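Reviewer 2 asked us to include a model.

Predict the structure of this chain.
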Amino acid sequence: MNEPHIEIKAWKTKKIDSTKAKEICQKGTVIGVITTGKITQSAKAVFDKGDVAWVENFPESELLNQEGQEES
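Predicted model (structure tokens):
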């Protein structure tokens, strides 16, 4: 994928650490990361330095299509 994009990580028991954050930043096209889990302080620093927006503890229920919910 060569276009700027946001990555979504739905991990309940795994944190995004600095190693994973560096891997994500090295892709060069990631502009944001959303995770249902946690992001370590060192990973947040990597994202901040790489100008990658991040959101942690995003509710998994918000990622699921629910019957009767209109898709946009």
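Residues 18-26 form the longest helix (9 residues). DSSP finds two helices and three strands in the chain. We have added this to the supplementary material.
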